[in-house]
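Our consortium's second objective concerns turning raw sequence data into structural hypotheses that experimental partners can test. To show how far this objective has progressed, the report includes one record in full. It was chosen at random from the queue rather than selected for favorable results. The single chain below, 134 residues long, was entered without modification.
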Amino acid sequence: MSIQKHIDKHLCEEYHTHRCLSMWGDLMVNEYTENAQVFKALSDANRLMIIDMLSCGELCACVILEKFNITQPTLSHHMKILCECGLVNGRKVGKWIFYSLDFETIKCFKNFFDEVTKTKENCICHSIECEEVC
């Protein structure tokens, strides 16, 4: 295949993907965007360990901090990311913050990941309009 044909094919595939994603509508794109934030939050080993710790139940930030060789501001940064994506809930009691897993968010995230990793009729790659473009 010539270089130009390879480039044309690649551009066509990119166009198909973009066109198919936009056809799914804002709701579906928002679902991808929201779940991408969860993936980003889970892409750090310390945050994964924090999730593991919280699987045993609610913990005070001071207890979590004892298990890591990090500063309090670094822990606050990690907890902010976990809370913003919805995986973790924070509850302030006096000067202490207690953290717990948000099992509803975790359930939705698991369902989303199961859905995007299985074969299905309404998959992005099966869109009729995309197949007709090139």
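The partners drew two points from this record. The radius of gyration is 21 Å. The first helix runs from residue 3 to 23. Both points have been shared with the crystallography group to help prioritize constructs.
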